[in-house]
Structure formats: structure tokens, C-alpha cells
Design a protein that fits this description.
Chain lengths: 670, 670
């Protein structure tokens, strides 16, 4: 039986699945062979498209003869064939004799094969195509929602959310809008995402109860997401046995605690048989964890892994652990070192179903960071790499900042130097993004931020894809039949937007310089004398953090030799990371040939000019974009340009006041 | 009939009216002559004291013969005699032939005369004293409570409150605790305060309704405060006619609007016959006001004054008007100028019952500001001077900062130079403080902050009093029979505390350098690039704001000639205000002989040492102070010292990094 395609609420944007995107499929004749719920989903998709555009779909049995049951020729054959060795999610694609064939070993693969056809559009039905095999690079492609059940007094309904409320929760309760959640799952499946954590990693009281008496609310979400192949995960509170049932301890080696978790997990799987597992932020920024009992992070993770193992569940243990009560006077402590210091010694100690989830950089999702050395330091541990789709530090979905190129750089970074494995290859535990989605009609607040969600999914599936090709795919799907001027305009405002944002914010990898708390807009000294370990040490002579082994904090030595050598030396360190690794005089000459101070001035003027130019380009697309979408983006460009000027002027004034070096081009600095 | 003395709730501190403070009165024989409610209050006070300590009180009729009705000799005669020309609140005090006599022209004067006797203690009954006449310097001695009825999402129950919740309101409703409010009124009357505004000058929806349908709650407070001679005032929303009754405008010249206010005032006086009047913050920090209709502040104030006039009410119109959306790049705009620019041209235009309420300095209650030039610029306007007892910028009642010396300096400042009137003399409209009181058991959070409330009242009555004498009086009352070591210790930690606080915070009058929003703790650049008009312009060469007429914003020229000349020149400007008026190089030599940079370093080291010393002194008083009070203060000293060190290190590091000038004494700067 075909499962009906979810109906979007009135006014909600279809994102990269507008009806038109399915026209090439919907005008054709399709044969589907296979059985089970996900095949029903595939059937429903094709049937819906055919219903709109006049095509036809026939359902056959898995393993039945290839010949068309009604003797007609089919344009598309979608079949599950257990004989194929393509893995649970892989599929083969080819076209021959006028028929496009998608063959998968299992129903998940068929779902992804279907959306492959959708993404290809008309090209899926053109010319002969030799058989291609498609498999995801990693088995787990996940979105972590930092959604709170109860509204947090400071962080609100969604921590670091810039797209309205939560799709899942409102004012302490599940919203119960299964249709919209299913539509969300459909969007995610169309880019290959297969896992969602439904609550914030900071787990307060209401959220802790999702594990037990409020489990039904989680089961409701799982039911809505399941038809699109998405497994539901839950962020849990390490102290849950104490908070929920008054146990005297949460010690991971305590038999009572272990029994408690075993029981809790048993009940979770009774309610949600395909439950994915837990996400845990422990001993981090005040959250409880195993340190209180003298136990290691491996002890903590393995205790939960043991409870999940009988059911095939996984624990995602976050490596975001550092001293968040640091003394700014103490230059010996380096927050960048913390994850490696804490976790690298534990390599090999984590259970097979424990995943260590590592932020892509050593700090916290800045616009530019080096790749975390943890990602190259734990070969005997299942690592997941975590990126941030929600634009906490990259413009909060008020600025256009397409992060595809940054994520691509990270995923392709070879941790041992040119010959070693890439981050994506090391991340056997998965690729995870913090979600940028809320109940906003455009899903992501800024309509163009949809590109980040789309790009994340596609890169998680295939990390070596060219992000610009992915962007073109997003443009093609979201704006079906876009004339060249529109597609060119979208490329123009998106492709370079990450570097534009980098230009007008904190320079040369030094990071932060944002307003404390909400993290929006410039605050050059905002974190300079704080407890958060986020410093730039600018004085009248120079700026930057000496993280060399020779004279600094030694962070550079956490990398494998090839990179340690590159970063250790001011001469070989890449310009864009210079101030992350070294404290240099303002007159230091970069590889670019510019001094540091002139680089600061130039990039800040350029960044604003580029933002203004993007605004201009967008304004010129008014005749090609629906009015509501065009207006929303135009309005946000006003704010982006205003804010970019504020960044430019504050950063330039700050460094002019400190350095006394005038701008080489004599521009106005206040 | 004597009115019973209010009973404090269990655990609430009696502050400067402990039972013991009334012993000298309570052991004696007193004759009271007079009638009416306030005389009943006086009678109740004496009766209560006599009941505790064995004295006797007899009530006679006003105007009856002086001879004691029972033929006995009286130690104290308290009498109202309309024949005396002492004004409504004045009284005569003297002692002759073993009898102390207080004679007042009216019952208010008798109340203040009674508390004069209480404050004198045993000295009121010693030796002959020639007749002294006591009159308050100003008819209005007021506390403005910035208490919200509904909890504000950012500011909480009490805006800038550091003493728990509000005495008047809780979670949207009146608390209805009349006895405690009456006890509060008693404390205020004992220091001469005679007016209280019961709600915040930022008037939101719930507070706007106090004027109309919730007037009964205000009447309840007025009833509780009335027995101690305190008139109740209300902060009102200028747009109330629109918000409450849907009028299309709040234009002060619109006849419908004027009629609306006339009706509202009529109903207020029907409920509260001795209602004091309105407090208005208009066209300030986003509050509505007459500017929206092209009207002047005088138009706005006079409209409300006209409504109040028939009933003897007053409108307090605040002069705190400035551009709170300033561009930090624009050095031509100077927030310090704003009040004078807005109001001085309106001198003579305000109605007789309109009081222009002026903050004592041109900025916002910084630890050091010059006196506002408005206070010398409007001789034809009834001015009130507003100080801030709540320690928003002076340590938030976690730091000891006794403000008596600052207020005394302000009140005695002669706006025309040596020969002219003092601020207190110019402030014919009254002396007002923002309250530092809440529902904290010690009333003021920090037990020693009670001294600020006490000192304010006493200086408002007599602005030329020596604040150190006032402090001694507070010590004597609050710690009856304090041994010399305790009294000396209290003096040691309080007398210099304002200057100590000044030393470790923003230097030389430059102000701010606090954390934005909550205003606690250092943030040297916290407001440097913001819209609030609060800058220091520190660069690698120097620091300070050029407010001279010759080369700066011209603010210095807003003063009368004598002061304008003093402030205009770097040479004559007092050190403590140098950076308020001038931008100078770090090497500039102060009158003290030190360079600016060395002064910054030295004062910051000294300030911390003084705070540490005060903590030590307090610790040594543990055997002489009740444990709860001692512990509360000791705990706050820990925080004060921690915070003072943070100020020292951040300010010193900031200026070392900027100036590059090492400390002359080679101390550690981070």
C-alpha cells in the first residue's frame, strides 16, 4: 500500500522538494518491486508524483520477473533485490534501453535510490548510464536538535535556534504535529540523513523525563520519522537515575545504576524498536558526568553502551569537555587542548557501540578553526565528527553563510598529512550536524540557510563531493527551471558567503570576538577577560595565541607530525590559521605579502563590500523569486550589511587604536 | 488613641530602630499634647517604648496649659502648637529645668521631633540645651521605588534591585502586607523621608493600570504609609489614555487627553486624599512622551500638572532624556550634554506644581561624575535632584560602598562657583533617591547598605550635615551601646568605602567600563562600541573624553562661568574628573604628581588592598555583631574582594596592553 506523502501546513515552504522537482518522475511509468513500510513510502512518493503529472506506477513483488506485469515498457524500475551486495543503504543506478533502474539490497537503499532519481530530475531519464553503485560514506548521518521541551529562561525553546520554535516541542509539551514531522523526515531522507536526536544535549528536568514517563512523546516522533528511514535518538542526562528515581549515585560502575539504565533502555526499545540510541554531554559546561565518581569518560560511555548493546543501540558521547571556569590570567591553560588531553589517552577503551562525537574544531564552531586533533588521534575508537548547521557563530541565519566549503575542507582534511585517511574516513561513527531547523515557514529562518541543511546531508553521504556541485543541485531542486540569471545570482551570493563572513569577523583564525551570551555581532574583547578560554591577547604590539610547542601551549604538538610541523612554525602555518597558532606583531608579513594589520583592515573593508554586493545581486532577482521568499532574504540582507559594517568598524577601530598603524589605503577608520 | 507600633515579621532586621534605640525615651515620663492621626502615631511610639522600659506617657490636649495634668514633673514634653512659625514639618527642641521640650507647629513636625529625640538617645535628656529650631531643607524628601508589579523578563521584580523582591508587589499582584509596609514607613520617617513612589518609572501594562482599575492596591499602600507622614506617588505611563481607554492620541494639548487625565486624577484623589503626585519618565530609553506629538517636555509636564493642581499634587518629570541609539562612531554627539540641551531652554515654562527631577550627574549614577549642569541652569524651574541609593553601578549591595560623601559633595556643590547657591538650595522641588530596599530580611541585601538609606534621609533633611556625623548616628542607633572597637571598625570599613570602590573601578571620572546589561563587574570595552553613549576612547596613546568647548563636545560650557573655566582646562580640571572632561596621554601628569597610567595602576592595587583590609577588619568584629549579620557581611566581602581583584586585573591589563607602559613599582600585571 502506498503511504501518502505528507501534506505541508499552509504557508510552509517545500524547500528542495517542491512539487515541480518531482515532475520528471511524475510524468513517467514506474515499476516498484519490493515490500515493507519503506517500499510503501517509495510507492507513495511515486504515486503522488504520478497523480500530479500524469505518469503511472505499478507495484510488483520483490524478486518477481523483471518483465513488466502489464507488458508495457517502464521508464523506471525501482527494485529491492537481496542478492545485491550494496549494504543496507546502498543502491545501484543505471539506464539502459530506455529504462532507468534503481536496485537496492534493502528498502532503505531503495528510498535513497528514489531520491537520487528525484535529485537528478530529467537527467535520470536521459541517455544510457552505465551501472553506478552508490553507498553512503558512513552509516550514520545525523542531525542533533538542541530543542528544549520546556522553554529555557535564557536559551529559549531551541538553544542556538534561529528559525522560530521547535518542530517537536512547545511550552513544555510535544506539539503532536506528526504530519509536519513526517514532512521534515522526508526532506532529510531526500538528502540522505538517517538519524535525528530530538532534544538538546543540555538536558534539564522536563527533558530528562523523556527517557521514562514521557517516552510516549518520543515514540510519537519516532513513528513520524520512521517512514523516511530516520531513527530517533534521545539526549539523556547522565544523572537521570538520581534525578528520576532517587538513586544515591550515578556512578557508572555501580551495579544499581547499571541495572537502572538497563531497565530504562529495555522500556525505550519496547516503545521504539528501531530507537537509535543516546546522545550525552557529560562533565561539560556544568552537566553531570562520570568525573564526580572518579570514573573516566570511557567508563561513562561504556555503561550506557552496555545497556544499549542488546538492542543494537549506540551511545554518542560528546568530546566537548573543557574547563569553562578558566582564569584568563592563566596563559598555561588552553581550551583548544582540552578534548585531546581528555580523550586521546582513552583510545581503545570505548565499547564498540560507543561513538565519541567530536566537534570539527578544537574550540566551538568558529568561522575558522583548525581541524580537531582528536580526529586523527583515536584510531581504535569509533569517532563521529560534529559540525554546526545552526549558524551560532556564523551569522545566526540573519547573514548568508553557506558552510559547504568549510565542511568539505574539514571532511577531506587528512589527519596524518597527505597520505593518511581523511576526517570523513576516520569518522567511522558518523557525521553529525547541529540542526538549523525550526518551525519557521522557511524551516531555517533565512531561506538561503536551507542550502546548509541540504549540503550537510549530501556531504555526509558523500564527503568527497564538490560542495559547489551540491549547491548547484540545491539550486536546481529548490528553484525548478530557474533561468540562468537566477541560478547565477544564487551561486554568486552563496558560493563565497562563508569567506565573506570570515572577512568581516574575527581575523586569521583567532576566533570569537563576539558579544558574550547571544554570540551575535562584534565584541572584540567580549571574551577576552572571561572564564571561557577564548582569548586573542591583542596588545599594542601584536595579536594571536601562541599554541606552538616551542614557546606556547603545545597544542600544535597534538597533531600528527606532518601537521604539527606545519602549524608549529610561523613560516609554514597557513595564513588563515596564523593567529590561532601564533602571537605575531602587527607588522608580520603573511604569505599573501600583506602585513597582519593591513590584512585585518583590507579583509574587513572587503567583507562589507562583498555583503553589499550580495545584497545588490539579490535585489536584482526580485522578478525571479516568489515575493515572500525574496522579501525575507532582502530584509535579512539589510541586517547583514548593517551588522557587517558594525563588525568592520569595531574590529578596525579596535586594532587601529591598539596598533596605531594607519590604513595603507587611507580609508576612514573611526 | 495611640497607634500601635508596627510589628516586624519574624527575622526581619529592625535596622536603625532596634528596641534598644528607644530605651532612653522609654524609661522616661512624657507628656504629649496634640491631636490627630500623626499625634496618635507619636503617642503609640512613646507608649510602646514606655511599655518596654517602664516609663510613662500622658496625652494632653493641644493648647492646654503646660503644667503636668497629674502634677508630676515630665522628662519630655512633645507638643503641637499652631502658634509656632516652624512650618508644617519643623520643630523646636530644647531642654530646661530637667524637661526636654519638642514643640511643632503641626503633627508632622511633632513626628520628626519625636524621632529627633530617639536619634539623640540619652543625650536628649542631658544638660540644658538652648532652643534649637529644626526645619527640613526641602519640603520633599522622596524615595523612588523601581518596583515592577509584574516580573519583568529581564529586569525582574525590582529593576536594579539587589535586596530581594519588592515590599509592595509580587508576581503581578500587591503583596498586601500592610504591617511591613508600615514598618518600612516608620524607618523612613525616623530619618525624615516623607514621600515614596511605589512603582518603577518604566511603566509596563500591569503598572499602567495602577492608575485606574488597580488604584485600590495603591490606596492600600498609601494607607499603610500615611501614619508615618509619607505621601504616596505613582509612576505613570504618558500613553496611559491610549493604552487604557483607547484614545487615539496622548497629545498633551489634546482636550480629550487633558480631560482623561483630569478624570483619572480626580478618581485617584477620591481614593487617596493625600496622594503626592506622579513620576514620569517620558521620551527616554523608549518610553512614550510628548515628542511624538511635536510637543515639548514642558507641554507634557504641564498637562499632568494641570490635572494634579486642584488637589495639591505634583508631577515629577524626569530629565533623564538622551539618545539611547547613538552611533559610537559619531564623536560629535555627547550623552552628557543631553539633559541640558533638552531642558535648559525650557526654564520658566514649567508649571508651579511641576518638578523637573534631575539625576545628580550628567550620565547615570557612576561612582564619579561631575554635578549635572542642569542643576545650575534653571533658576525659574522647581528642580529636584535624584541620587541612587540602590547600588546599580557601585557594587550592587555585594560591595560596601557608603555613598554619603558623594551625595554630600553633590548637595553642597555651588553651581555658580564659590558664592552661588548649592545644589541643595537650587533643588527647591526636593531631594530624591532611587530606593535600595526590598523584601530582604536586612531590607537592603547588604546589611551595611542600610547606612546608605539612613544617610540619604538625613542628608535630604539637612544637606549641609557632615556625612561622617550621620554615619556615626547610624552606627549608634543600629548597634546600640556598641563598644568603641565595633564603632571604630564600622567607621573604618564604611567611611572610605566609596573612594575604595572608585579606586578599583573606572578611573578618573571616565565612568562605565562595566559589563553591559546587568552592570556588575568589569568590562572595560563593555560600552565602548555601543549605542548608549558611554565611551572612554582609550587608544595606545591616551584615554578620556574631550568635553571641552575649545576642542571637544562643548559640554564644559554648559556650566556657569566659574565651573566652565575650571573644567575647560586640563590644568585646572580636578584630577578625579580629568578623563570625564579631557582626552589625555597616558604620560600626562596629574595634580597628584603621578602620570595617568601610574595613577590607574596604583589606585587599582590600592583599591583591592583596601577591600582586603576592610574584609579583615570585619572579620575581627565577629564577637561584637550578631552571627547572622556578621556572616552575611563576611560572605559579601568575599565576593567584593574577588570582584575587586577582577576589576584591578582587567583594568590594569587592559591599559598595560594598550599603553605598553610598565608599572613603576614592577607589580604583576597579567
Amino acid at each position: 500500500m502506498p503511504l501518502p506523502v505528507p501534506v505541508l501546513p499552509e504557508g510552509v515552504d517545500p524547500a528542495w522538494l517542491p512539487v515541480e522537482a518531482l515532475r520528471p518522475l511524475g510524468v513517467r511509468r514506474t515499476l516498484i518491486r519490493g515490500s515493507g513500510p519503506l517500499v510503501d513510502t517509495v510507492h507513495g512518493e511515486v504515486a503522488d508524483a504520478c497523480g500530479r503529472f500524469g505518469g503511472k506506477v505499478v507495484r510488483g513483488e520483490e524478486g518477481a520477473a523483471r518483465g513488466a506485469p502489464d507488458g508495457a515498457r517502464y521508464d523506471l524500475l525501482l527494485e529491492v533485490s537481496a542478492a545485491e551486495g550494496l549494504g543496507a543503504e546502498g543502491f545501484a543506478f543505471g539506464r539502459d534501453g530506455g529504462t532507468t533502474t534503481v536496485t537496492a539490497s534493502g528498502p532503505h537503499g531503495l528510498l535513497y535510490g528514489l531520491f537520487h532519481v528525484v535529485r537528478l530530475g530529467a537527467a535520470a531519464f536521459a541517455g544510457p548510464v552505465a551501472r553506478e553503485e552508490h553507498r553512503p560514506a558512513t552509516a550514520l548521518r545525523m542531525l542533533d536538535h538542541w530543542d528544549n521541551v520546556s522553554v529555557h529562561p535564557v536559551m529559549g525553546q531551541v538553544e542556538r535556534g534561529y528559525a522560530g520554535g521547535s518542530l517537536f516541542w512547545r511550552d513544555g509539551r510535544a506539539r503532536g504535529e506528526a504530519e509536519r514531522v513526517r514532512a521534515y523526515g522526508r526532506l532529510l531522507a531526500a538528502v540522505g540523513i538517517n538519524a535525528v536526536a530530538v532534544n538538546n544535549v543540555n538536558v534539564r528536568e522536563a527533558e530528562t523525563r523523556l527517557l521514562t514517563e514521557r517516552l510516549g512523546e518520543v515514540a510519537g516522533l519516532a513513528e513520524a520519522l520512521r517512514p523516511y528511514g530516520i531513527r530517533t535518538h534521545l539526549s539523556v542526562n547522565f544523572a537521570a537515575p538520581m534525578l528520576l528515581d532517587g538513586l544515591p549515585t550515578a556512578d557508572p560502575l555501580d551495579t544499581g545504576v547499571r541495572a537502572w539504565w538497563a531497565g530504562a533502555v529495555r522500556r525505550v526499545y519496547a516503545a521504539i524498536p528501531d530507537f537509535g540510541g543516546f546522545v550525552v554531554k557529560a562533565d561539560s559546561e556544568g552537566e553531570p558526568g562520570p568525573f564526580a565518581y572518579g570514573r573516566s569518560h570511557a567508563d561513562g560511555a561504556n555503561m550506557l553502551a552496555a545497556a544499549l548493546a542488546p538492542y543494537g543501540g549506540t551511545v554518542h558521547w560528546r568530546a566537548f569537555v573543557y574547563d569553562h571556569r578558566q582564569d584568563w590570567r592563566d596563559r598555561g591553560t588552553d581550551r583548544a587542548r582540552a578534548a585531546h588531553d581528555h580523550f586521546a589517552p582513552l583510545d581503545g577503551e570505548f565499547a564498540g557501540n560507543a561513538v565519541l562525537q567530536v566537534k570539527h574544531g578544537p574550540m566551538d564552531f568558529q568561522v575558522r578553526e583548525p581541524v580537531s586533533p582528536v580526529l586523527g588521534a583515536m584510531p581504535r575508537t569509533r569517532l563521529a565528527v560534529e559540525v554546526q548547521a545552526t549558524q551560532e557563530y556564523t551569522g545566526q541565519q540573519r547573514h548568508v553563510c553557506w558552510l559547504g566549503p568549510m565542511w568539505s575542507e574539514v571532511l577531506r582534511f587528512r589527519t596524518d598529512g597527505a597520505a593518511g585517511p581523511s576526517v570523513a574516513e576516520s569518522a567511522r561513527g558518523g557525521i553529525v550536524a547541529v540542526s538549523n531547523v525550526g518551525d519557521d515557514p522557511f524551516w531555517t529562518g533565512h531561506p538561503l540557510a536551507q542550502a546548509n541543511l541540504h549540503t550537510f546531508g549530501r556531504l555526509a553521504w558523500r564527503p568527497d563531493a564538490d560542495p559547489c556541485d551540491v549547491l548547484d543541485e540545491w539550486i536546481g531542486l529548490t528553484f525548478p527551471g530557474a533561468p540562468a540569471r537566477l541560478a547565477d545570482g544564487l551561486r554568486a551570493v552563496l558560493r563565497g558567503s562563508w569567506r565573506t563572513y570570515e572577512k568581516y569577523t574575527a581575523p586569521l583564525g583567532v576566533g570569537f570576538m563576539v558579544q558574550p551570551g547571544h554570540h551575535y555581532g562584534p565584541g572584540v574583547d567580549g571574551y577576552e577577560y572571561s572564564r571561557w578560554g577564548t582569548y586573542h591577547f591583542a596588545d599594542r604590539d601584536g595579536v594571536g595565541v601562541d599554541r606552538s610547542a616551542a614557546t606556547g601551549t603545545g597544542y600544535a604538538a597534538q597533531y600528527a607530525k606532518a601537521w604539527a610541523e606545519v602549524y608549529e612554525s610561523v613560516d609554514s602555518c597557513p595564513d588563515e590559521l596564523l593567529l590561532f597558532f601564533h602571537h605575531v606583531p602587527y607588522g608580520h608579513v603573511l604569505h599573501s605579502g600583506k602585513t597582519v594589520i593591513q590584512h585585518i583592515y583590507d579583509t574587513h573593508f572587503e567583507g562589507v563590500e562583498e555583503a553589499e554586493e550580495a545584497r545588490r545581486v539579490w535585489a536584482g532577482l526580485g522578478d525571479l523569486v516568489e515575493p515572500a521568499r525574496h522579501a525575507r532574504v532582502a530584509e535579512r540582507y539589510e541586517e547583514q550589511v548593517r551588522c557587517a559594517r558594525e563588525w568592520r568598524d569595531q574590529v578596525n577601530s579596535y586594532f587601529l587604536r591598539k596598533s596605531g598603524v594607519p590604513d595603507g589605503q587611507g580609508r576612514l577608520i573611526h
